Amino acid sequence: MRLLGVERASALGGWLLRTLGPKTGTQRTVMRNLRIAFPDMPDDEREALALAQWEQTGRAFAETAVMDILVKQCRIEVVGLERLHAIRDSGKPVVFAGGHFANIETLAATITGSGVPCQITYRAANNPYVDAQIIAARARYGVKLFAPKGGDGARELLAGMARGES
């Protein structure tokens, strides 16, 4: 993905999951959930929404490999960047909470890109090879500690906050 550059990597990831995602067993879950969430939506609109979801997920996955480039090229618009700079300048850690909107990697990338030392908690990917790639991609844009969910992860996060990491 890194060899392709940002636009091509994103487009390829989007195309791959838009093409392959509907052929997986997960598609049944996607469609069931869309029927529950949008009972009055016509079937063709649900299908289109599912395809758009697959494309967005593929783009986000591919963009994770080039997130450090997205940050360096200032391709992420940050509203309220002065707040991050105030946190950075205070030297005091804070707890950030974010939603899974579009590419979820942009939150940590923006925080670390602003100079705030940041650690994140996560659920490891089921595939250990994929998990290692995600960890490596996150390390490229500045996230140094990956605290797993649960008690051990909570202790790691608290220790990081004691060191001044958000």
Strand order of the largest sheet: 1-2
Please tell me the overall pLDDT.
89
Q: What general outline do the C-alpha atoms trace?
A: globular
The run of helices and strands is HHHHHHEHEH
> Which class do the helix and strand fractions yield?
mainly alpha
Multimeric state of these chains? single chain
Low-confidence blocks of residues: none
Percent of residues in helices comes to 55-70%
Please report the distance between the alpha carbons of the first and last residues: 30 Å
> Strand percentage, roughly?
under 5%
Radius of gyration: 18 Å
Number of strand segments = 2
Count of DSSP H/I helices: 8
Biggest beta-sheet profile: 2 strands, parallel
For the record, the count of structural domains works out to: 2
Structure notes:
The chain has eight helices and two strands. It is mainly alpha-helical and 166 residues long. The chain has two domains: 60 residues, no CATH class; 85 residues, no CATH class. A two-stranded parallel ribbon has the order 1-2. Helix 7 links the parallel strand 1 and strand 2. It starts with 5 loop residues before the first helix and ends with a helix. The mean pLDDT is 89.
Question: How would you briefly describe this protein structure?
Answer:
The chain is mainly alpha-helical and 166 residues long.
